[in-house]
Amino acid sequence: MTNVIVAFPKPEDAKSIRNILVKNGFPVVAVCTSGAQTLQYADDLHNGVVVCGYRLTT
């Protein structure tokens, strides 16, 4: 199954989205609040999906 990274600037929003995805059977491997964190986790994975907002901090 595909790995999922959730990235939103507000941690509470990211955790809410993570909970929805996990309840529906998607494996969330990371919850991020910045673009740099997201890129770091994405670099470690060979495949996956990033669910994010349109604006992240660096």
Number of strands: 3
State the share of residues found in helices, binned by percent: 25-40%
Tell me, what's the shape? flat
What's the main sheet like? 3 strands, parallel
Biggest sheet strand order reads: 2-1-3
- How confident is the prediction overall: mean pLDDT? 93
Rg over C-alpha atoms, rounded to the nearest angstrom: 10 Å
Number of helices: 2
Terminal residue distance: 29 Å
**SS-derived structural category:** alpha/beta
Strand content: 15-25%
Q: What letter string, H or E per element, gives the SSE order?
A: EHEHE
Low-confidence stretches: none
Structural features, described:
- This protein has 58 residues and is an alpha/beta fold.
- Helix content is 40%, strand content 22%.
- It is built from two helices and three strands.
- The protein has helices spanning 11-23, 35-44; strands at residues 4-7, 28-32, 49-52.
- Strands 2-1-3 form a three-stranded parallel sheet, sandwiched between helices.
- Strand 1 (4-7), helix 1 and strand 2 form a beta-alpha-beta unit.
- The longest helix has 13 residues, at 11-23.
- The radius of gyration is 10 Å and the shape is flat.
What characteristics describe this protein?
alpha/beta, 3 strands
Q: What topology emerges from the helices and strands here?
A:
Layout: E1 4-7, H1 11-23, E2 28-32, H2 35-44, E3 49-52
Parallel strand pairs: 1-2, 1-3
Short description:
By secondary structure, the protein is an alpha/beta fold. It has helices spanning 11-23, 35-44, and strands at 4-7, 28-32, 49-52.
